[in-house]
Amino acid sequence: MRHSQGLKARVDAYGHRLSSGEPGRLPVVLVLVAIWAVFESLNSAFLSPRNLSNLSVDIVGTGLIAVGIIFVLLIGEIDLSVAAVSGLAATMFAVLNVQYGMPEWLAVIVGMLCGAAVGAVQGFIIAKVGVPAFVVTLAGLLGWNGLMLYVLGTSATISLDDKGLVAALTNTYFNHDAVAYGVAALVAGAILLASYQGRRRRKAVGMPSRPLGDIWLRTGGVAAIAFTAAYVLNQFQGMPLALLIFLVVIAGLDLILRHTLYGRKVGALGGGIEATRRAGVNVVRIRISVFVVSGTMAAIGGLFLASRITSVSQSSGSANLLVNAIAAAVIGGTSLFGGRGRTWSALLGMLVIQSIASGVALLGVQRAIQSMITGGVLLAAVVIDSLSRRSRESHSRPSGPLMPRPGDPSYRGR
Q1: Is 148 part of a structural domain of the chain?
Q2: Tell me, what DSSP letter sits at residue 80?
Q3: Res. 60: pLDDT tops 50
Q4: Which of 242, 346, 356, 398 is placed for a possible disulfide with 66 were both Cys, Cβ 3.0 to 4.6 Å?
Q5: Domain total for the chain?
């Protein structure tokens, strides 16, 4: 009886959050489960260890770019240049390493600095000069793609060393079973520790806190998923290095957003520029910084994408990459209106998108079907985001501003 009452209380609490415009990650998880069920019923190879292992590596490059976009979306802006920046950074690396003989580690740093510099330039124009982010980054999409083609020169494709540092990013696997299971245990332990400490802090200041039963239930659910994933990965080649790096980056940036002063400033800016400025926050600096993060993550993602195919070509940084990166952030639960989102959205969103791509490939149908399905999922995510925003407004909750427009006194962010 007590268990059924506790379950009913949790269902009622989620229903209240849903009616208040906070759907959480449950809708995305349900969509992902439905996609997996459909494709597995159509082709039993979909949930095979080999396919799931390949999927876990395929999500990393675009997923890292999506993580950077989340920072920009959190303040109610958009970055349309990330795909071009990823291609430019990968091209800079390839040209410097392959054609000019620069050591790989140094060429990687130059590629990352290239992405950060692009983000800083665009962020300065947006935050200080006052040009809309849509215009600046759209110009960047064209300009940086042109610069990438110029740097490539007459070389249509530059092949990377398949034994080199960058190639190893997506070709390295930890074959020992203990590695994957160890990562699963760390994930479950981190969730438990973070939830318990959060509960203790809230109780210390007299705020409502999560019941211990909920904490154990949540930790048990995460542990079940993590250890199942570890088991499946160990059935093929073990834990991929690329996936491990992806998880570490997501977790690290999530900690920055949720538990540092900088992260609180980013979240506050998503709730309103003018209010954040009056609170004493340097709005210009924060707005520039999120574009630096976006550019840097785009560069890192570009290196992982180049690693996956061990080459860089004129098709690097394509429009499909831009669409998938933005779609991953939005499908995963990041609001287009600012103020709501977590870095884990990139993981969930990319699992949805890449699962569709993998399933379509296994079925041997046209890629046009993949685009239509992904477009439908993206539209549904945006509709849910819009409805959630309306619901939050009706409950007097701040939902984050729309993108500043010319004439708005807060437009320049000064």
Answers
A1: yes
A2: S
A3: yes
A4: 346
A5: 1
Q: How is the chain split among helix, strand and coil, in percent rounded to 5?
A: 75, 0, 25
CA atoms within 13 A on the CB side of 312: 34
Give the number of C-alpha atoms closer than 13 A to the C-alpha of residue 111, restricted to the C-beta side.
34
Reference 151, options 143, 140, 160, 161; nearest CA is 143
pTM above 0.85, yes or no: yes
Please give the backbone phi and psi of residue 43, each rounded to the nearest 5 degrees, phi first. -155, 115
Rounded average pLDDT over 61-82: 94
Instruction: Name which of 216, 227, 212 is nearest 191 in CA terms.
Output: 216
Assess if residue 210 is contained within a domain.
no
Residue 364 buriedness (CB in 10 A; 0-12 / 13-18 / 19+): exposed
In a domain, 319, yes or no: yes
Within 8 A by CB and 6+ apart from 334, the residues are: 70, 73, 74, 340, 341, 342, 345
pLDDT digits 0-9 by tens, 352-396: 999 999 999 898 887 777 788 888 888 887 787 777 767 666 655
Domain contains 184: no
- Residue owning tokens 């630096």: 292
Q: How far is CA 63 from CA 59, 328, 329, in A?
A: 6, 7, 9
CA quadruple 228, 232, 233, 234: dihedral sign: positive
Q: How far is CA 175 from CA 171, 236, 240, in A?
A: 12, 9, 9
Nearest-angstrom CA–CA distance, 113 and 107: 10
Query: What is the span of the domain harbouring residue 356?
Result: 43-175+237-394
The residue type of 408 is: D
Alpha carbons 257 and 245: distance in angstroms, whole number: 18
DSSP-based three-state secondary structure for 397: coil
Residue 159 parent element (H or E) = strand 157-159
Structure tokens at 307: 């690693």
Burial of 208 (0-12, 13-18, 19+ CB in 10 A): exposed
Q: Are 73 and 336 in contact (CB under 8 A)?
A: yes
CA distance 133 to 85: 15
- Mean pLDDT for 210-216 is 80
CATH of the domain at 110: 1.10.3470
Q: Which residue has the tokens 């990013």?
A: 169
